[in-house]
Specification:
The protein is built from nine helices and twelve strands. The chain is an alpha+beta fold. The chain has a domain of 119 residues. Helix 6 runs antiparallel to helix 9. It is elongated, with a radius of gyration of 26 Å. It starts with a helix and ends with a strand.
């Protein structure tokens, strides 16, 4: 009779709160830290499923890299308003490429329009997201934003380039500013095709990617959601925690999972100094019962893939990959003068 009462008492507690297992009741997977050795963190119980003071958080990854810098993604789609075009289109009249053309007598704007252009009434499927977010992200991770306007002298002529003009030139030069033989890429792009798994990467896969890509202080890039369009942003801080108490808002999803008492929950917090509005705070789960790992996402969206480029320590050389009308070394000298607050004479 005593055993029956004990069983009914535990059953009542579990039905009332599926996460009510005490540490003494839990079975730890082999190779993990026993719950009794983990620091108990008392959190604001209004945001979590349970008020049991024995619940814990375990930090799995904590990283802070170099500061990211905000660069614009410069869409290819044409803005018909000249003012809007000037701050959005690399080929805009009066912009950085236009000034470069006038000073160095080249045809950068013409090349840009022929090769990287979408009309304002374009019917192409990528018209609203084609641009240079990859280039902007490379620079955001590796280069301080231009500081000062620069007066540039060439062949008895001169042009003054504003920081925004220099940013436009930097976007064109971005792939010349990094090491061509050193980069990291984990995951794969989701294109919305039949057979593709929108849940990838799963939580444990994303955790592994983040562990690998944060081994140094260089910020990294994420495609922030698993859609057919790609939106890359730079990130410079990561915190991943394993916990037994996910937020209450996910309870409906959690109750649909099996083996609730064996589930572990993961909170991924990924931050960007340059783009704080793109900070990520997502939740996933895993279950290793019966020797088989099951996992998935509680959050509706999660990153698609992660990548990183490394800056070169040499002067930028050659003609620019994005627009061969522009010399990477010319842009290098203009950029360095912007940081130093000096003029440039060619």
């Amino acid at each position: 009779m005593v055993l029956i009462k004990m069983f009914l008492s535990k059953l009542y507690k579990f039905l009332k709160d599926p996460f009510c297992l005490r540490k003494s009741d839990a079975v730890e997977p082999s190779g993990t830290t026993p719950a009794s050795n983990l620091e108990i963190v008392h959190l604001n119980t209004s945001n979590h499923v349970s008020t049991n003071p024995e619940y814990y958080n375990e930090i799995l990854l904590s990283w802070k890299g170099n500061k990211t810098h905000k660069y614009h993604w410069w869409p290819m789609k044409e803005y018909t308003n000249p003012v809007e075009s000037l701050i959005n289109n690399l080929y805009a009249c009066g912009g950085g490429l236009d000034r470069y053309d006038k000073l160095f007598h080249v045809k950068a704007v013409e090349y840009q329009k022929l090769n990287h252009f979408r009309g304002h009434n374009s019917t192409k499927s990528d018209k609203d997201w084609s641009g240079f977010c990859d280039a902007a992200t490379i620079l955001s991770c590796t280069r301080e934003y231009p500081k000062h306007s620069v007066k540039v002298h060439y062949c008895n002529d001169s042009q003054t380039f504003t920081p925004q003009d220099i940013e436009a030139l930097m976007i064109i030069t971005s792939y010349n500013t990094v090491q061509s033989d050193r980069s990291i890429f984990y995951g794969k792009r989701y294109n919305g095709l039949i057979g593709e798994n929108k849940s990838e990467p799963y939580p444990m896969e994303l955790l592994d990617m983040l562990h690998k890509i944060t081994h140094d202080k260089v910020p990294f890039a994420l495609d922030v959601c698993q859609e057919s369009s790609v939106w890359n942003y730079s990130f410079d801080e990561v915190l991943v925690e394993k916990t037994s108490h996910p937020p209450k808002k996910y309870m409906k999803k959690i109750r649909l999972l099996n083996y609730l008492e064996d589930n572990v929950y993961y909170n991924f917090i990924i931050k960007s100094m340059a783009y704080p509005e793109k900070n990520i705070n997502i939740w996933g789960w895993s279950n290793n019962s019966n020797g088989r790992q099951k996992q998935g996402w509680l959050s509706d969206k999660h990153p698609d893939f992660v990548w990183k480029k490394y800056p070169t320590s040499n002067e930028w050389a050659g003609m620019c990959n994005i627009n061969p009308e522009i010399s990477a070394n010319n842009v290098y000298r203009i950029y360095k003068a912007s940081i130093a607050g000096t003029e440039v004479v060619f």
